[in-house]
Design a protein that fits this description.
This protein is of the alpha+beta class. It has helices at 3-37, 59-70, 97-107, 131-145, 168-175, and strands at 47-50, 74-79, 84-90, 114-117, 121-127, 188-200, 204-211, 214-220, 230-242, 245-255. A hairpin with a 2-residue loop joins strand 9 and strand 10.
């Protein structure tokens, strides 16, 4: 019931949130530079990375991005307390991440201080001096559990989307459904004419596309290449809201 105290707490929380966003932004920039330097043609079956400048609250984002680029299960570790490092992992179809950690723990007793998770995401804690050993063990286990075909990225789509369905009504219908692992949101594929394109914040690609008489906006986050006058996309139909106005938009998963 003390307005002054409530205001002070709110300001403190706002400061903490700003600091966290700055940490996240800095780590995401590091992740982008790291991704540019990684050799996608010679990646181990399972990857573990550690940097003493990373923050444990954001390593999941980093692991997810590297997993997406290399199509490998990935753990990213950051310093914890008391000589420990804490990691967050993301997996690919074919490797149950928690089961892989369990196998590592059985083969190397004492290596993992603790671990837990599920098929596609997991966490692990270990002593800093044991990181190199974990990296070796994780790569070995991943290589045994993953078939060669699992290491080849396959993009399965639901085919093309007819012109009349590029609408706000259909986008709302899809957004209101419940999607998840084993039942993902529809992923469509088609070719478009590129009428306009521009780069946002030096890392996102905004497109104005044409398909027959239909025109629609599209965006690809953290894009790698810009298209020519025609492009082939794998995309999801979504809703873009700007200044209170909603319009349909394509979220680009792959571009060529």
């Amino acid at each position: 019931d003390d307005p002054a105290r409530a205001l002070a707490i709110a300001q403190q929380l706002d400061t903490l949130n700003r600091e966290r966003r700055e940490i996240e932004s800095g780590m995401q920039e590091q992740a982008l530079h790291l991704l540019e330097s990684l050799d996608t043609s010679d990646a181990a079956p399972g990857i573990a990375l550690f940097d003493d400048s990373w923050h444990e609250g954001v390593v999941g984002i980093l692991a997810s991005r590297i997993k997406d680029k290399l199509h490998r299960p990935v753990f990213a570790f950051a310093p914890g307390e008391g000589g420990l490092i804490k990691g967050s992992g993301r997996s690919i179809p074919g490797l149950h991440l928690r089961d892989a950690l369990d196998l590592v723990a059985k083969r190397a007793p004492g290596l993992l201080v603790r671990f837990g998770g599920h098929a596609m995401a997991a966490g692990a804690t270990l002593r800093t001096e044991n990181f190199a050993r974990f990296r070796e063990q994780f790569a070995q286990v991943a290589g045994e559990l993953l078939a060669p075909a699992d290491l080849t990225r396959t993009l399965e789509t639901d085919g093309t989307l007819e012109g009349g369905y590029y609408s706000l009504e259909i986008a709302r219908l899809l957004e209101n459904e419940i999607w998840g692992q084993g039942f993902p949101a529809p992923l469509f594929m088609d070719e478009f004419e590129v009428e306009q394109q521009r780069v946002l914040k030096e890392k996102h690609l905004k497109l104005r596309l044409r398909k027959g008489d239909a025109r629609i906006d599209a965006i690809q986050f953290n894009f790698a290449v810009q298209p020519g006058h025609r492009t082939r996309l794998a995309f999801r139909l979504a809703i873009n809201e700007y200044m209170g106005v909603e319009t349909p938009q394509l979220l680009v998963e792959h571009l060529e």
